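Homework-ish question, so no full write-ups if that breaks the rules, but can someone show me the predicted structure for this set?
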Amino acid sequence: MERALTTAWFNDEGRLTPEELQTVTFPMSRLGRRGYEEEPVQRFLRAVHAEFVHLANERASLWQDVQRLRRRIIAGEAGGDPNAVLFGKEDAHIHAVRILSTAQVTADRYVADAQAYSSRVTEEARLRRDDIMREAEQHSDMLLEEAHARAREAAVSALNVAAPPQTDRERRAAQAELAYLRTYSEVYRAHLRAYTEGLLRGIEDWERKEAASLQETASLQEAAQGHTDRRSIGH
Amino acid sequence: MPRSVNLWRRWRKAGPLDVVRLRESFDHVAMHGDELPLFFYSDLFIKHPEVRELFPVSMAAQRGHLVDALVKIVSQVDSVNDLTAFLQGLGRDHRKFGAVAEHYDAVGASLLATLEHFSGPAWTPELATDWKAAYELVGSIMTAAADADEQLRPPWWRGTVVAYERRAFDVSVLFVRPEPRMDYLPGQSVAIESPSRPKLWRYYSMANAPRSDGLLEFHIRLIDGGAVSMALTSSTIADTELRLGPPVGALTLSQPSSGRDLLLVAGSTGLAPLKAILDQVAALQQPPRVHLFFGARTADGLYDLDSLEKMAAQYPWLTITPAVSADSKFTGETGSLPDVVARHGDWSGHDAYLAGPTEMVQEAVARLTSAGMAQEQIHIEDFGWSEP
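A: Not a homework solution, just the prediction itself:
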């Protein structure tokens, strides 16, 4: 039972043995560099470090057990209840500490697993969303392109269909329509010109006002600067 | 502060403590790795079960923090001021976890039991006295700082989520009303604990300067597997009550003003502290010219562009350049944010404020430094002694 108590929180699997230390080999590094490849050596050193931590913990634990048993013998409790001898109040506490430690580490692992899982789910959702958005964009691009192509086709076929008018009556009708369209386009041009000129006036006005306000700010700053300078001279 | 410094001096000079012996002893027990904090916490929880509820379910990260703090304390015994500041910060930081003076005694007893257990035959009465004295010193500096802090502010603020907006696939904006009102510097952050993730605190920056209604704006990005960010970006967060730690962080406008123009570089939700700084600049009498680069992977990651563009239209001193790194359809700047910033010319005469993914910030800082920007002109998110 005591042995179980001491080793309950140690896992004996995959431990480093002295034999492994003697037989370990590292690959030689590539041409042009001397010595071993760095990564395998680092990996090995990490394993050695973990093993030493493990041994140190085990040793501390065993030392506590030895101390406790020694105290028992000295106190001459060996004649009493054997259970009380092997498992006193102090041991109960250490035992409780180990049980709680194991429980805590288990809880930590559950939380870490849950977190890793939620992280994976969120990441997948994000990637899936990116995919959907990309597909939708491609689809809309395709639709737009198709519409453009159709419009082009329609325009080309309209040009081809418009054959020169044959009769006098048709020619007169076409000329009347042409005159009408010209007038209309002139009206539109006039409207557009007036509108654009209005816009330009607005821009000029804006420019003028900005220049004026900048000048004002500059003179204000100058005044403030002058003030500061005088003050620092005064010092 | 002066009191603690004197304590350290006494320890280092004539006192009964032997720093070399203490360090040797620590090196000896430190080789036990994770078993050391594991034993410590189990011992503590068995002797004082009520302390367990101050900690999260998983203790893995906590064990790392304990060992890191011990290593720092033992290795920095010689640089008194640094260590004192570190311990004071630690003491103040522990207020929000619910640590009180009695806990310090319990922790001390378990720490000693742990050291004894792993020291084996090397444990002597002298060593025990040294460790006890050292711990008492550490504990007294921490509790003194915590006590002083208690006069100034609560251990944590209650924060009600009054509004929740989902801005992008993985970004939400929260508006939180703290009680009592919280004063802070624009650019600072607070640790947040969500009721559905007890005892897990994560730092988030306020995205606004202090407002008259006291509301705090937070930008939360869902991190894959991030326990807290997942809880905070969930739609069930509306109307819940969060806990907010005290404001920390030094990503704040230099005072007095350097007079230089500002370059702000924000990657994703790194925008939050920089938007708070923008808020502050907007309230200045004579705001400097500000150029804000706001980058994300794709266009829909530019979750706050509308409000930024509104600001830019309103303030002539503000220029906004959005940039995306993985979206060929985007009509604006494309490429990595540090590249885009570098393409826009010489920034060496500016003060730079950067926040966002660590890699992006590091890369941008390296580029700015090599382009001639001085160290004191560069400001980045830095949580100092605290764990982000």
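Now go work out the reasoning yourself. Hint: Chain A has three domains: 1-87, 101-153, 171-211.
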